[in-house]
Every structure is written in C-alpha cells, then in structure tokens.
Amino acid sequence: MQYTAPDRDEFAKQIQELLDANLIEPSKSPHFSPAFLVNKHSEQKRGKRRMVINYKKLNDHTIGDGYLLPRKDELLDQIRGKKLFSSFDCKSGFWQVLLDDSSQSLTAFTCPQGHFQWKVMPFGLKQAPSIFQRHMDETFKGFESFCRVYVDDIIVFSNNDKDHITHVTKVLDRCKDIGVILSLPKAQLFKETINFLGLIIDKGQIRLQSHIGSYKQGRLVRWQLWLQYFNIEFEHVEGIKNVFADALSLESYQRYV
C-alpha cells in the first residue's frame, strides 16, 4: 500500500502511542493485514485521523460468534416511560479485552513503521462486538431492571432521584470491581433528556436526533430498528449515487414498516 508523507508522520505518532500503552508489539507473524488512515466526520471533529486495519481476509477465515447483540426495539421499550437517565461509554472498549498468545499473531498488521500485532482485541474483527457484548452482559448481570448495555454504550434508567442514585452507584461500583474503564468526558449524568444510540430520549419519549431531520421520524426510527437484524454496512462513496439511502427515502417503502 502506498502512503503519503503526512500519512507516514501520522502513523509514526499513533504507532508509538500504541507501543507506549502496551497495546501492540512488534510481530514476526506470517499473517498480516493492511492498515490505513480515515478522516471522516467524527475524525475531523476530534482533529485526529483514525488508523483502520482491513481484516477482511482474516474475517473470511474466522468462525463467527453466535452471541447476539440486544434488540434495540426491546431495549428502547424498556427505557420508554422512565424519568431519569445516565449513560456511560467504555473507553476504547474492545481494547479492554486481552488476547491470548495464539490469537495475537493473527491480528498482525503492516504499516509504514513495520509489522505489529495486537495484545488486546482490535476493532475490525467480526467476532469483536459479540465477544464484548457477552463480557458486558456478564459484568452487569442482575442489573437488567435498571441498566442495559449495547456493546460499549451503557444506560442507567430510573423513575426517581433516590432510585437513580442507587442504580448509578451500583453500576459504577461494578465497573470498579470488574475493571471496566469508562470515558468520563462522554458520561451523561442524571438527565431527563439524553442521547443514546443515535436517538434522543426525552422524559421517556424517544425521537431522532435533530441533525438527522425531523420529517418522517417514526418511519426512519422503524427502519433503523428493522435494519439491525441484517449483517450489512452502508458506506458513502464520493461521486457514487447512494441507491440504498434513496431506496429508504422512497414513500413507496412505507408499506414495509
């Protein structure tokens, strides 16, 4: 893969950060996957390009994990009607899962700085969401009546202040006991209105975030919930007609929701 001079500088910086954090190590593995940098909206917002590794070939030869992610519609039904909310985001969630020695060599990747492999679970492996979801479900087992987790997003919900203090305290204590690391800047505490999974939960009512658009909200929410059952990914390619988005916006598709 060909890299520009700015790419090489950015790789050098990020690889050194990962080495210093003991997340990766130099590799002699016969396996390798290419690494590249992306600069989409979220990266532009934080002012830092993101290193991505294309694990397609590895994923093609990997047995999947059958552990299911929660159904968003059931999760939202449980939240609907609650009065107070707090949410937490796991800091680099997948990186909190250690890899055994035999798995580390499979995650090897190449970049301008050389050949490296992960000591923790990287983003891009097809089993990663299921593995992490299982870990989080086991972590918060017994808390389902007031706490739900969708991969690395945690939401706590209650009917009143007193209960919410108790519920949030239990969740934070469990994180401390198990060693789950949270991103404090992303935490939302004791809110009547909260952002969660791309939706706004306002005093127990659920609606789309304003930047998505206010028209046809109900239909768009139903489409979002329905599409979760399919293993698909939409990607915008500059200059290419976005036929999937166009199809979803057609009035004739109303009959399917």
Architecture overview:
The strands form three sheets. Strands 1-6-5-2-3 form a five-stranded mixed β-sheet. A four-stranded antiparallel β-sheet has the order 7-8-4-9, sandwiched between helices. It is elongated and about 55 Å long. Helices cover about 35% and strands about 20% of the residues. The longest helix has 18 residues, at about 160-180. The protein folds into two domains: about 5-215, Alpha-Beta Plaits, CATH 3.30.70.270; about 215-255, no CATH class. It has about 260 residues and is an alpha+beta fold. It contains nine helices and twelve strands.
How would the blueprint of this fold be written?
Blueprint: H1 5-20, E1 24-26, E2 33-38, H2 41-46, E3 50-53, H3 56-60, H4 72-79, E4 84-89, H5 101-104, E5 109-111, E6 114-118, H6 128-139, E7 147-150, E8 153-158, H7 161-178, E9 188-191, E10 193-196, E11 199-202, E12 205-208, H8 217-227, H9 243-249
Parallel strand pairs: 2-5
Antiparallel strand pairs: 1-6, 2-3, 4-8, 4-9, 5-6, 7-8, 10-11, 11-12
